[in-house]
Amino acid sequence: TYHATTGADRRAAQADAEAALKLNPETFQALMVRGSNSGTAGKFDEAIADFTAALRLRPDHPGVYALRSQGYLEKKEYWQVIADATRAIELGHKLPDPLVNRATAHAFLGDYPKAVADYDAAIKLIPNPNYYVQRSAVHAKAGDPQKAEADWAEAKRLVPGLPDKARLALPDAPKPPERKKLSADDRAAFD
């Protein structure tokens, strides 16, 4: 989740970041502000570029990896999400964001056990009702309706009156492309 402020504060922060970057294009905090604002505005390529530049300056900053994983998630670049979220976790990120990003990527790739494990870890950090809703969808997709119902019930307990329309359904995981069989001539080219 991008944590940029809204309205006039965000515009002022963006103007300050732009001014700082004109003076020194390698200003870590300015890159972070501009990247976060770009992500909030839906400009994910720009956000990813700024977070990548920030990582060149501070390659061991877990928050930058977490934020960049969010940009990749928005672009549905799930393997990049997994790589950046994993690096954020390895570097000691304390919030559940990279776990949830990675869980979501695993779910969309059809790796439901890994998705559930990441949602479990995120829920241990913060028992957010959204995480229960998301894990419920993963359990349902994985063919475990009892666990799906238990998570949905917990989300509804945490948010009384939670409407049924808040329930998520995951699309089918993408199927890997079919591998083309090589002809005898093609195989001979590799010999």
Provide an overview of this structure:
The chain is mainly alpha-helical and 191 residues long. 68% of the residues lie in helices and 0% in strands. It has ten helices and no strands. Helix 2 runs antiparallel to helix 3, helix 3 packs antiparallel against helix 4 and helix 4 packs parallel to helix 6. The longest helix has 17 residues. It is globular, with a radius of gyration of 20 Å. It starts with 6 loop residues before the first helix and ends with a helix.
Task: Write the SSE topology.
Layout: H1 7-23, H2 28-40, H3 44-57, H4 62-74, H5 78-90, H6 97-108, H7 112-125, H8 129-141, H9 145-158, H10 184-190
Helix pairs in contact: 1-2, 2-3, 3-4, 4-5, 4-6, 5-6, 6-7, 7-8, 8-9
**Which H/E pattern describes the elements?**
HHHHHHHHHH
Number of helices: 10
Structural class comes to mainly alpha
Choose one word for the global shape: globular
Total strands: 0
Mean pLDDT: 84
Radius of gyration: 20 Å
Major sheet attributes: none
Helix content: 55-70%
Strand content: under 5%
Distance, first to last CA: 50 Å
Q: Spans of 5+ residues with little confidence (pLDDT < 50)?
A: none
